[in-house]
């Protein structure tokens, strides 16, 4: 069984070795990710993040990684994978959140959400 110290040694080798060469400067990489995530978050509906949005943000992470470090074909495979996951999650969210109840009915039924209900905005389709 691996000890905590052995695990941290492996992490140090990864972060400072192959991964550093693959993804480029850590700060620049994370600045690129932050810029894309901030743009995404600035242009979304208020409320808690949905699974589809998390998958889209992970796709943005992969896009950001293409801008520094060495070429990595896996970034493009992962990007396509995250896009597919986002699509599947969005379909499920749309099915789960498209209801024929009023927002008051949903809350009364115990399906409370911190999300601000806007009957005119996808994925909501309330009959009000």
Tags for this model:
single chain; 128 residues; mainly alpha
Describe the structure.
This protein has 128 residues and is mainly α. The protein folds into 2 domains: 4-93, no CATH class; 98-128, no CATH class. It contains 6 helices and no strands. The chain has helices at 4-16, 18-23, 26-42, 51-65, 73-97, 103-108. The termini are far apart.
Query: What are the low-pLDDT stretches, counting only 5+ consecutive residues below 50?
Result: 111-115, 124-128
Distance between the termini: 59 Å
Beta-strand percent range: under 5%
Helical content stands at 55-70%
Counting structural domains, the number is 2
Pattern of helices and strands? HHHHHH
| Mean pLDDT level | 81
Task: Count the DSSP helices.
Answer: 6
Q: How many DSSP-defined strands?
A: 0
Q: What is the SS-derived class? A: mainly alpha
Can you tell me the overall shape?
elongated
Largest sheet: none
Rounded radius of gyration (Å): 20 Å
Short description:
The chain has 128 residues and is an all-alpha fold. It has helices at 4-16, 18-23, 26-42, 51-65, 73-97, 103-108.
């Amino acid at each position: 069984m691996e000890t905590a110290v052995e695990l941290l040694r492996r992490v140090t080798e990864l972060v400072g070795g192959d991964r550093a060469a693959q993804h480029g400067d850590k700060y620049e990489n994370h600045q690129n990710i932050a810029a894309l995530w901030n743009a995404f978050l600035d242009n979304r509906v208020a409320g808690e993040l949905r699974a589809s949005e998390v998958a889209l943000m992970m796709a943005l992470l992969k896009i950001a990684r293409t801008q520094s470090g060495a070429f990595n074909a896996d970034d493009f495979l992962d990007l396509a994978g995250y896009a597919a996951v986002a699509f599947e999650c969005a379909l499920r969210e749309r099915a789960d959140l498209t209801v024929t109840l009023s927002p008051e009915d949903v809350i009364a039924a115990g399906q409370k959400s911190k999300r601000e209900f806007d009957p005119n905005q996808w994925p909501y389709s309330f009959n009000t």
